[in-house]
């Protein structure tokens, strides 16, 4: 079955950086778009970034544009989220996700994503 496992979260000071990883297994990784979402306590799940199955297209939430970069390494079946200039408001549980359909175009609509990881916690101190 499809499995997504996030890693790389932690505690960092404001202005610092972290790189999240999401390792995928269970199907041909290169055929599927990938996305990152986050959820802070008491808040709704929020789209962060997405990358197309080919890697040619990336999409970002306005709140993180210019600070975060999504990328993928199909040889390693892994998608990354490089987070720079972190702010306390970036504190959340970060999830990676992937749609059911091969070569589908998905962006910020969470309901288009079928598979989700367990999440990795990012905490940014002020």
Task: Please specify the SSE layout and strand pairing.
Blueprint: E1 3-7, E2 10-13, E3 18-25, E4 34-39, E5 46-51, E6 58-60, E7 68-73, E8 78-83, E9 92-98, E10 115-116, E11 120-125
Parallel strand pairs: 2-11
Antiparallel strand pairs: 1-3, 3-8, 4-5, 4-9, 5-6, 7-8, 9-10, 9-11
What does this structure look like?
- By secondary structure, the chain is mostly beta strands.
- The chain is 0% helix and 47% strand.
- It contains no helices and eleven strands.
- The strands form two sheets. Strands 2, 4, 5, 6, 9, 10 and 11 form a seven-stranded mixed β-sheet that branches. It has a four-stranded antiparallel β-sheet with strand order 1-3-8-7, with no helix packed on it.
| Biggest sheet character | 7 strands, mixed
Number of helices: 0
End-to-end C-alpha gap = 40 Å
Which regions are unreliable across 5 or more consecutive residues at pLDDT < 50? Answer: none
**Average residue-wise pLDDT:** 96
